[in-house]
Design goal:
elongated, about 10% strand, mainly alpha, RNA-binding, single chain
RNA sequence: GCCGCUAUCGUCUAGGGGACUAGGACGCCGCCCUCUCACGGCGGAAACCGGGGUUCGAAUCCCCGUAGCGGUACCA
């Protein structure tokens, strides 16, 4: 099995493209086949080197490796020109100066039931001759057979007047030359497939097998675009998702295992994926489910692995201790710092949290009680810290939160943090007392004559 | 306009003539756990686009309609 992923470098790799790449990759890896990467850069206006790099980066981050390429489609211009000549010599293609407007006008006058057929001229763009009669049938592994009657097809332009070729021609030649056996791509290509089939037929080349994947839509049900958040692989990466989780989630869009399994490792994906399991209705990208899938993958990581991921993501080291007490509370890598940053950078500034717990009333005196107990905890380990703080709760005869929340705000600056005992033990006695004292000083400035 | 694809809870889906009082997952709601936030556990609300057929029987097959999407470029 030889498959290919052929993005066009006109923008970043979005999740639709990423899923197409993933499905091809899964098929190649699952069958011991070959994945060819081809860059469809024949549109010189919109293709850029930056985009190519960005796409390769995205694929590398997703850990989708390829066996051949990347080959530039534009670099194959010689070969394309050569085949073009063959087609013209054989009478399968011809030059025509007809413009898009001419085609429109033609269809206006001939009605909808007659595709455009141009005159053979000495110059102009090159059009493929579509037979007047009959039909071209696209056999699709996902959709079955789709019949395209030739009467509805216009003779498509396959090369510009200067001889540079267009997509529907180049793609057919390149897939054939690369001996691609299965063309797996988005459904947006289905309607163009007969043109490619016609090119191959004119050349007497056996066509590959096709599989057109249902398209991906944004959360609003509309076609995915730059307007949608997290639409590109780069954005997913920045949002703190794990490549394995993204692969898992993307696989679930349009495909599902026979049972109700939702969390799959990449090995399982490779083993279980098949085109037969791919549905045919478009799917919407739902970031909330991605978050959940990501959480499951993230929590399956060992402490060392997660620490490494987090340190790379945040760009700091020494995060291990905080990771140990916060791992279960985060779903993405990006969740970590807002939750634990205070451990390293000091308490956050959250006026609302302050007002609620230490602003007035009995907050400060409860914090003082906690300070007193913690000052004596010996040794300053988790068990002793917990015992000390629970003792304060008991003596005060209040709910645990009434002691713990003021303390949490004193230490973290906010009402949300890892477990309070863990946090205190991690900060250590000195730092804990220092922060409590700072909070107390701020909450109750000493009266002028108290000293 | 024309050609084509698609249509099950809000979302991803299971289902491929009787096993369907339509199953699971995310999300949502409630309860439990609980020091906050999460995690976890338990429970709940929530869907076969509409209309015709075919059949003893249709979510499942066929037709029509509707809607969404794609194509209709000297873009890919």
């Amino acid at each position: 099995m030889r498959v290919r992923f052929a993005p066009s470098p006109t923008g970043a790799l979005h999740i639709g493209g990423a899923r197409t790449a993933l499905f091809n990759w899964l098929l190649a890896r699952g069958s011991g086949g070959t994945l060819v990467l081809r860059i469809e850069d024949t549109d010189r206006e919109r293709s850029t080197l930056e985009n190519v790099e960005q796409i390769l980066d995205a694929l590398r981050w997703l850990e989708l490796d390829w066996d051949e390429g990347p080959v530039s489609q534009a670099a194959r211009a010689e070969r394309h020109r050569e085949v073009l000549e063959t087609l013209i010599d054989a009478g399968s293609a011809y030059r025509s100066t007809a413009t898009a407007d001419d085609v429109k006008a033609y269809k206006q006058s001939h009605g909808a039931d007659r595709g455009f057929r141009g005159e053979d001229e000495p110059e102009g763009a090159i059009r493929l001759r579509v037979p007047d009669e009959g039909a071209t049938v696209v056999s699709d592994a996902i959709r079955g057979e789709t019949v395209f009657d030739h009467v509805h097809l216009d003779d498509p332009v396959i090369a510009r007047a200067d001889g540079s070729v267009l997509y529907n021609f180049a793609v057919a030649i390149d897939d054939a030359d690369a001996q691609i056996t299965h063309v797996i791509r988005g459904e947006d290509h289905l309607s163009n497939t007969p043109k490619q089939l016609l090119v191959l037929e004119a050349l007497g080349v056996e066509p590959p097998l096709y599989a057109h994947l249902p398209l991906l839509h944004g959360p609003d049900g509309r076609k995915l675009s730059k307007r949608h958040a997290a639409a590109s692989v780069q954005e997913l990466r920045d949002a703190g998702y794990l490549p394995a989780a993204v692969r898992n989630y993307l696989a679930l869009l349009g495909w599902g295992p026979d049972d109700d399994t939702a969390i799959l490792s990449t090995d399982e994906l490779v083993r279980r994926f098949s085109l037969a399991g791919v549905g045919n209705a478009p799917a919407q990208f739902d970031e909330r489910k991605l978050r959940w899938v990501n959480g499951r993958h993230l929590h399956a990581l060992s402490h060392a692995e997660l620490t490494a991921e987090l340190e790379a993501f945040i760009g700091r080291t020494g995060l291990g201790p905080a990771v140990a007490i916060a791992a279960e509370k985060i779903q993405t890598l990006a969740d970590f710092w807002p939750l634990c940053g205070f451990i390293y950078d000091g308490p956050a500034d959250d006026p609302a949290a302050w007002a609620k717990t230490l602003g007035a009333d009995v907050g400060p005196e409860r914090l003082a009680a906690a300070r007193e107990a913690l000052a004596e905890a010996q040794p300053f380990e988790l068990a002793e810290v917990e015992a000390a703080l629970r003792g304060v709760v008991e003596r005060a005869g209040v709910k645990p939160a009434q002691i713990f929340q003021p303390l949490r705000v004193a230490l973290a600056g906010t009402t949300v943090s890892p477990g309070i005992f863990e946090t205190v033990a991690l900060l250590g006695r000195e730092e804990t007392l220092r922060r409590i004292d700072a909070a107390l000083a701020r909450t109750a400035p000493a009266p002028p004559d108290a000293a």
